[in-house]
Known about the structure:
Blueprint: E1 17-22, E2 28-33, H1 53-57, H2 65-80, H3 87-105, H4 114-130, E3 141-142, E4 145-146, H5 152-178, E5 189-194, E6 206-210, E7 216-222, E8 230-232, E9 242-244, H6 248-251, E10 254-255, H7 258-263, H8 270-282, H9 286-307, E11 327-334, E12 337-345, E13 351-357, H10 359-377, H11 381-391, E14 408-413
Parallel strand pairs: 1-14, 5-10
Antiparallel strand pairs: 1-2, 3-4, 5-6, 6-7, 8-9, 11-12, 12-13
Helix pairs in contact: 3-4, 3-9, 4-5, 5-8, 5-9, 8-9, 10-11
Amino acid sequence: MTQRWVLDEIVDPFGAKxxxxxxxxxxxxxxxxxxxxxxxVDALLAGQEVAAVPNLVEKLCGxxxxxxxxxxxxxxxxxxxxxxxxxxxxxxxxxxxxGSALETHAPRLIAHDRETALAMRRFGKAAMAAAGxxxxxxxxxxxxxxxxxxxxxxxxxxxxxxxxxxxxxxALAREQVASGASLPAFGGADVALVDRYGSPDLVGDRLRAVxxxxxxxxxxxxxxxxxSLIAELFPGAAAPRPYLMALGPENGRxxxxxxxxxxxxxxxxxxxxxxxxxxxxxxxxxxGARAIMTVHAVEAIISLLETGEFGSGxxxxxxxxxxxxxxxxxxxxxxxxxxxxxxxxxxxxxxxSAQILTPTAQNEPWLxxxxxxxxxxxxxxLDLEDAVREADPCLPCSxxxxxxxxxxxxxxxxxxxx
Length: 418
């Protein structure tokens, strides 16, 4: 039997609208990025057989497919009672994820340094192919591990190309950190995944949150505790306004992504950690943070290549089935930040519900603050473009060249205005 899904609205992936609210005196009171054109796809998974979910989630998003692939498989592993995958499988997944980060960040460099951007993309795609995902949509992971290990020839090619790309990206990151803009301070928390020692880990199994002044709010929570960590103020909405439950709806806003990843702890790769220290000292921007995370990705891949762990060993542990009437949570820290998949099963082996919390949805309050700061000075497109590019929502407009984002700006009178 063939099943067809029909979306009842047409979404322009290149469209981007900013709504600016003014008070009775015509002064800017608030600004926000309109997420109404990005309907949530969580409901598409409800009612599906659990075993069919991996093939569905990898195609839910064409912009960050690898992150969705790994987070979805992670949620299924939680439902299957899999606490750890074999070391070789973990290494293959890390290669896929770091390669995806490079491939995702590359378009942001096209206007600034086309040759480096193309080299990043080629290397990222090669890393993903070596990890078993040669196409746009990944097929690397399965519940319990991965489908195959990395071949020697592919590993040798990556090892030959990695040092030159690393050196190029280091030079670029130093330039970005030195020229970083001074941005409005964010009063919310920073949230990212970490390893057992509290260092940022894009495929980590612990969540860490630090306050605006650097204090530790959550030191290292497991995915199983997700329901007590973060809640949506408007559940199921395109702009759900998630918040840290420890601080409540009024004060619990937070951000995710490269800025948060650099603020929650010290990176484990040496050159990126050195750049991180300079970035923190200078109060750097998101462009500098992204550049540092690309260096971290290449260094992480070089480390994987040196150990060769992804080339031998078990590919997966057995998975006997998925628990009924249970909740499973999987997450990864993608190029744009934390991505969470939460699945709830029924007694019949199907999903009763699914929650997919994207980095764009989590960063919407931060973007609103950036837009307000920009709009208070001017509603000119370039200023607002800078704000959008800083928070980096998962829309193609984020990668548009300067002046080419094509923002639609709607100015409306707030209640009590004219």
